[in-house]
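Fold this sequence, please.
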Amino acid sequence: MRVLVAEDERALADQLDTALGRAGYAVDRAADGPSADLLVRTERYDAILLDLGLPGVDGLTLLRTWRDAGIVVPVLVLTARGSWTERVLGIDSGADDYLSKPYRLEEVLARVRALIRRAHGHAHPELQSGEVRLDPRHTRVTVRGVDVTLTSHEYRTLACLMHHAGRVVSRHALVEHIYAQDRDRDSNTLEVFVARLRRKLGASVIETVRGVGYRMADAPGSPEPDA
């Protein structure tokens, strides 16, 4: 899945970038309010980590304008402003969760997982489709209980499809979810990732919806694409 880290403190942004990358996420970064606003309005994200003290435009102002514009991406506020009144203000402005600095990276990752899970209607911390199980806590994938080793891009492709269980995910949406903003997004490689997943997980695990995209084959639900 793909997340945005909007944080102007370079050391903190580096730590979050590294931790999220190791956890299987594609990560984009913004060091000021205008840059964060541009990325959120032009790119697809599964979650946003937002510092309130951004230069240019502060985090609360960004949050309010995003919600007013109908942007519903889950937002985890990370801030040094820790009083209960500020937490209430942040949540009332549209934040989905709030974490005061200093924080532990393990807790940040847990809260991001929970936000993404709830946004896609999943109650259980593990995702399952037929005999395939995906554990975002440990970036672990198993088939019939046997561990399967995936590359980072294979994992992101599978995670996106499993989070959208029951829906067709368009090729365009998949490419945007598995690549960070500064990476070369070659849509032809998506077919390579899907082919590798089929070899590792089973040929019938991922269904091709011709001319549209892909979905987990045994997942019931709407045939409409997640464009």
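Residues 143 and 149 are 11 Å apart (CA to CA). Confidence is low (pLDDT under 50) at residues 219-227.
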